[in-house]
Structure formats: structure tokens, C-alpha cells
Automatic annotation (TrEMBL):
CDD domains membership: CBS_pair_NTP_transferase_assoc, NTP_transferase_like_2
Pfam families: CBS, NTP_transferase
One Gene Ontology MF term: transferase activity
Record protein name field: NTP transferase domain-containing protein
Domain CBS: start-end pairs: 70-111
Keywords: Transferase
Keyword Cell wall biogenesis/degradation: no
Taxonomic superkingdom: Bacteria
Taxonomic source organism: Parerythrobacter jejuensis
Annotated Nucleotidyl transferase domain residues: 128-349
Amino acid sequence: MVETHPGWRKALLQRSSATIGDAIAALDRSGLQIVLAADADGVLEGTITDGDIRRGLLRGDTLESSIDGIIQRSPMVAPSDLPEATVRQLMSANKIRQMPIIDDSGVLVGLYIPDMMGAAQERPNLMVIMAGGKGTRLRPHTQNCPKPLLEVSGKPMLEHILENARASGITNFVVSVHYLGHMIEEYFGDGSKWGVSIDYVREETPLGTGGSLSLLQERPRAPFLVCNGDVISSVNFAEVVDYHNLHRAVATMAVRSHEMRNEFGVVLTDGVEITGFEEKPVVKSYVNAGIYVIDPSALDLLETNAYCDMPTLFGRIRDRQERTVVFPMHEDWLDVGRPDDLARADQTITG
């Protein structure tokens, strides 16, 4: 009999009443990267993965939307009496990482995830962390301290980014420094304290996120991550890289859904004619989350020591008729730009 993961019930939802927000909560609660949707009797009705949720959000679904629009209703399952070796073979052949286990009545009795409890597989992908900004909006906190070294829940913001990336299997880093950069280098050194390798590039003048990449001493051999040094998030960086590779993009930008409510009733017109009314409409859009995956070929579009921001680099890639895509985030995320964001960042870290 297959030995199932001890925490599989945390991934369980009752399909009839569950929303996308409930599915995200189940993903966060279990950490198993899958949601198991069942009826009131425990019969499996489908599964939901992180990718299903992201596709729904891109389509315009909200956290209040039913999971019915994103659920996979015919997932591969295994009977409880199937030998573990056979289950592993099925999973390998079909390239799946989780297998729901059911009894003869279709009732869920577990979830099989081989090697789930092992450490994250080490990735070949480099991460470049942008840590050179002056943080003027955070004065006086940044008067004598670079913004990435400001503490959140007892440790610098940059350390949270580093540890989250390390947990995702990222072990090679380049940190781009400028303002009070020596303090960052003194704190993190070569990264050995965290079990990683850290190199540094030093901007003489601010070059923008894209321009800083022109200073890389060695050209990465695989798509590499870029992250702003003031972003607090629980996103799995390895999943962002996998998403980038899946979509065969040259550049991927992580984005967050943002809503703005108009405080007035809106009058719709056609010339002088009134065609309708909208009472305090909500405008939804995506905002740049400050996390990217870039193919090394994009570095050819940069001039050494020349200013270039990321939107400009993405524009150059599109002008070359190459693919740029968004990675819609549902994970906790905060861009720490103002003093009150520091307190919010504490809440984000502590949950």
C-alpha cells in the first residue's frame, strides 16, 4: 500500500462552496502545491494547482470566483492498493509531482508525493538582487543605512529574500550595490554563512534595473532571476523560473493584481448623450512586482554602464519580436517603499 503524505488533509476543500481565495489558502496551509476538491462524502471531484490559479487570474477571475472555472475534473489518481513502485512509474511517465490516492468508492484516502520532505533541488539559475537604491522615501531610516539592510521581523529585508530564494534551490547570487553598498558587502560577505555564493557588482552611478545587468562579469548560462532588494514575498522563485521556461519566454515579469475604486458615480456618454451609469466602479490592472526572469540573450540589448530600466528592456525584447510574458502572483507580496510599509512587512513575514 502506498504511504501517503501526513499533511494531505490540509489540502482538502469541499468543491461546492469553495472559492479561488479558499484554494490559495489551502495551498498556503498545506505547502503541498495541490488542492484536492471533494464532495461532502469525501469523493474526489478534481484537483487545482498553482498554475490553474494563475491561469484563472489572468482570465479575469477574482479571489471570490468559484473554483469551478479552474478545477481539473479528471486528474490522474491511484487506488490505495497499488504498489508504490507502480505509482512512481506512473508519475514519472506522466510528469506529475502529486498523486491523489482513492479507495474503491472514489473517496480520497491520501496524497502521494515522493521525496516531498527532502530539501529543495539545487537550481543552476543565478539570482541578481538590486540593492543600490537610496531609499529616499524611507528617510530618516535610510539616512545611514541602505534600504535592503532595514530590518523586518528581526533581520534585513535582503536576508529574507536570500533565505526564500535558498529555500527554492537558488544558491548563486549577484548583488548590485551603490548607495552605502559597503555596508551590504560587510554584512553578507561571500554568502557562506547562508550556504550560498554571493558576488557583487558596483554601480558608480545609478543605472536602473536593466542597466545594472550590463555589469555582470560572467554571462549566465541559463535564464536568471532578477529581484528588487525591497520586495518581501513568499513566492517560490523556482516556480517563476519553471513558468518562464514553460512559456518559452525571453523575459518574464511577475505581476500583482491591483484594484482602484472610483469614489464617484461615473457617467457614461457618447458625445452629449448619456448612455449609462456606473456606481463607484473598480478598475483592475496588473502592477510590476519587481521580480523577473531573463534569458541571457537579452543582455545583448544592453550597453555597458548605460542606464536602462526594466520596462525599456522588455520593450527592446518585444521590438526584436521575441516573447515577454507575465507571471501573475497570488502569494504575499509587499514593495517596501514608505515608513508605514515596514510595519506591514512585519505582518507579511509573520503571517
